[in-house]
Each structure stands twice: as structure tokens, then as C-alpha cells.
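Exercise 3.2. Students should predict the tertiary structure of the chain below and write it as C-alpha cells, then compare their answer with the key that follows.

Predict this chain's 3D structure.
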Amino acid sequence: MMGVKTLLLALLLAALEGAGSMPGSLTDVIRTDVSLRGVVLAAAGRFNDQSNDAFLFKPSAILRAQRQVVKGLRYVVDLEISRTLCRKRNHNKDLSRCDLQPEGSLKQTFECHTEVWVALEE
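Answer key:
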């Protein structure tokens, strides 16, 4: 009888390990995830909207990214955003067309922590 209990316990532990994380817990997101890219661009857009800087900033590195499924998706992201060559007054919101500032006095990078909630469509 003890052998059966041990076998069941071993199978349960193996199943839990293979299942990954618990429902509702934070899980790592790969940096190439399409949804993550949208979240990071939205965070940079919000930073630009609230910044008084003359130049736009765009994501330059994703340091850590996690996602949690809870009545939608909650992204927790640590990233770097860097000043670009694009000026805000030109109203260029397409950050993919903005190169980063070269080395020099105008180059600036911030480490940011952001949490973004995304509602799931029903």
C-alpha cells in the first residue's frame, strides 16, 4: 500500500512541475511576444504624453517581463526607454521611425517599471 501512495505522490509532483506555474501567478513572457511589444509601446506612449521633454522616448530594452491572467491580463514589465532624435512638436507618434540619440549630451535612458492591464474580449 505504501508503494502505491509513493507512486501517486511522485506522479502528482511530476504533473505539477510539468504544468508550470499556478493559475493566477505571474509567468515570464518572452521578449519577442507580440502582445508584450504592444504593452511596451503603450507604456512609452504614456511616458511621452506625461513628459515635458522636447524629444520622444522609445523602448530600448526589456529587462524583465511577466504576465498574470486575472480577469484579463496584467503585465509587469521592467524596461529601458531612451531619448530619440524625433521631436515632439513634429507630432511623429510612429516610434519605429525614430532613431535613438547617439552618444553625447542629449543621450538619455531611464529604467522604468510599469504594470499594464489588458481586458480580455468576451
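Discussion points: The radius of gyration is 21 Å. The chain has a mean pLDDT of 85.
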